[in-house]
Each structure stands twice: as C-alpha cells, then as structure tokens.
Write a structure and sequence with these properties.
Blueprint: H1 3-18, H2 24-27, H3 29-45, E1 49-55, E2 61-66, H4 71-96, H5 100-118, H6 122-140, H7 146-174, H8 180-188, H9 193-226
Antiparallel strand pairs: 1-2
Length: 228
C-alpha cells in the first residue's frame, strides 16, 4: 500500500478510536500546550518577552508576546504548528529508541515551565498541574502501564497536529480573518492565509508519515524478535 495512503488511513482510524477513550478530550490540550510553547520559545530565542500564555478547555490557546515587528513577528507566528508536528514526530522516534521515559520527562518539563513562568488562568493552570502529576505517577508509581499511556499521548499529539492544521485550512478558505496563525502571517506578509495554512498542513503530514514510519519499524522489529 502507498505510504501516504497508509498514513492518511491510519490517521483517520486513530482520530475515530481515540475519541472512544474516556476523558481523551482532556489530553488533547497537550498539542495546544506544545503549540503555544513553540511561540514562546521562538520569542525567547529572538530576545523578546513572553507576557503570558492562556490554555482553554476547547483546546485553543494564545501566547502574548512582546517582539519586534517584521521578520521576528513572522518567525514567532510560524513556530507553533511546526513545533507541535515535530513534537509528535519526536515522541514516536523516542518510542522507536525505547526512550519512553525521556518523552514523558520532556512533556512534564514543558508543562512545568509553562505552569511556573507563563500560564495564568484557572483552567490552564489546573490542566498543567494535573498533567504533571499524572506523568509523574506513570513514571514512578505505575511504570507497567506507562507504555500504553505514552502511546496514547503520542497518537493524540500526532492526530491533533494534523487535524489542527486541517481545520486551519478550512478556516483560511472560508473565514481567513479567523484563521489564527495563518491570519497573522497573512497580515505580516503578502501571502494569503490559505497559503500558510496549506503549508502547515503539508508539514504536519510529512511529520506524521515519519512518525508512523518509526512506529511500523518498531512493530516489525518486535515481531521479528518474538519469532526467534
């Protein structure tokens, strides 16, 4: 089967199945957390100032930054979706390398940094605190089920990184002024929001293809080991 077709079918199946898991909606904020962290990280790399970050129960978020106009503002607006896609790719790479603890520690570290330094507001702070506590419990109290928890998070981030850009393309096509980062980039550049939205979508699909490649390689390796 064509690898791209397999990727799309796998993403569609994952999107359906993960929604059947109780409380899965709460964990979808992980993608939002990484997305907003991407904006904050790029702001800091450009010597700007992160004023605050807000995370909402509907899986949206916003980062308020003080940054120079022009190229710096463009780079900050560009950072969110690609970092979320790269994060999902990294989780599957760490799974391939059997470094699940590293992935959980990285997720926990990002959540802790955001909780201490940037996130203000009831839901965001509660969600981050709960996510940190659950990750620590998985790592130190319930290690036997941490693999399944890790894969659950990895599939959610993979799915959300693609679905988020897909919804962005829809918004850019029909209500471009409400297309989030794509709308910001359209205001900062001569290119329309739909261009940026499609670019984000293509990048997320490329990362998804790579992530599933890591997964299939690991499963094939485990199958070979089991048959010896």
């Amino acid at each position: 089967m064509n690898k791209w077709l397999k990727t799309l079918l796998f993403l569609a199946g994952s999107a359906c199945l993960t929604r059947l898991i109780p409380f899965s909606s709460l964990f979808r904020n992980l993608d939002t957390m990484v997305h907003e962290f991407g904006h904050a990280l790029m702001t800091l790399l450009l010597s700007g100032s992160v004023l605050r970050i807000e995370l909402y129960a509907d899986h949206s978020g916003v980062t308020y930054s003080a940054i120079g106009a022009g190229a710096q503002a463009i780079l900050v607006s560009l950072a969110g979706y690609p970092l979320a896609s790269l994060f999902s790719l990294l989780l599957f790479y760490l799974y391939r390398r059997n470094r699940l603890q590293w992935g959980l520690m990285l997720s926990t570290a990002i959540a802790l940094i955001m909780l201490i330094l940037y996130v203000r507001g009831g839901f965001g702070m509660m969600w981050l605190a709960g996510f940190i506590a659950l990750n620590l419990a998985m790592m130190f109290l319930w290690p036997k089920i941490s693999k399944y928890y890790y894969l659950f998070l990895a599939f959610l981030t993979l799915e959300e990184s693609v679905m988020g850009t897909l919804f962005l393309v829809s918004s850019a096509a029909f209500t471009p002024s409400r297309a989030g980062d794509a709308a910001n980039l359209a205001r900062l550049t001569p290119l329309p929001a739909i261009f940026w939205a499609v670019l984000f979508l293509l990048f997320s699909l490329l990362c998804a293809k790579g992530a599933l490649g890591f997964l299939f390689k690991e499963e094939r390796r485990n199958g070979k080991l089991g048959n010896r």
